[in-house]
Amino acid sequence: MAKILMVVSAADRLTLADGTTHPTGFWAEEVAVSHRVLREAGIDVDIATPGGVPPTVDPISLDERGNVDEPSAKEFRAYLEGLSDQLDKPLALGDLRAADYDGVYIPGGHGPMEDLAQDADLARLLRETDRSGKVVAALCHGPAGVLSTSGEEAGEGFPFAGRRLTVFTDEEERQGGLGESVPYFVESRLRELGALVETGPAWTSKVVADGNLVTGQNPQSSADTARQVLRTLKEKGAA
Length: 239
What we know:
Layout lengths: L2 E5 L5 E3 L5 E3 L4 H13 L3 E6 L20 H13 L1 H5 L2 E2 L10 E4 L4 H4 L5 H12 L3 E5 L24 E2 L4 H7 L9 H7 L3 E2 L9 E4 L2 E4 L5 H14 L4
Parallel strand pairs: 1-4, 1-6, 4-5, 6-7, 7-11, 8-9
Antiparallel strand pairs: 2-3, 10-11
Helix pairs in contact: 1-2, 1-8
């Protein structure tokens, strides 16, 4: 059975451009739907956070402020409650080895911009996973996590420069995110580092697969991103 490490932000606040903070966390749909698609396909999924800190769901991702209707919010709540054992006691990134997994999957919410983007343990796991050709997947703001690999390591540059990917767009951030209040725009930061960002229309599903790298643009891409991960795992003989 293939095994995926789902890396979830443990941040419950995002430091804004003006130095104030805004409540945040992980996006409910992106964790719940991605996890469900993977598990229904028979994939074993571990959940980890920086330091093993229990993650916080962004409250906006469970009501109309996040354009989530009540039936969907109820569905996501119920699924996350079913994951309470893992979410209440997640694994700690620093204790894990890339060799023990067939891939890493990073869902979004604004949280990853606060902690995963600078996390040295995540950087190590992503570099090792990518070097071995295993799946590196990220969804919506989750690609902020790959920014952790942008620091020089043994003379290496950003490993995802020149790679095709997608991410929650600057347009979407301005339309329905935190706009100019964010400390940085993830799409712009990735472009600056040399990633080849491909985007679809705002708020529609868009998935980009470039070899072992699989990325989704927004919450609407959650199921399609997880399905592409399954296809990539099968191509690699891991599922």
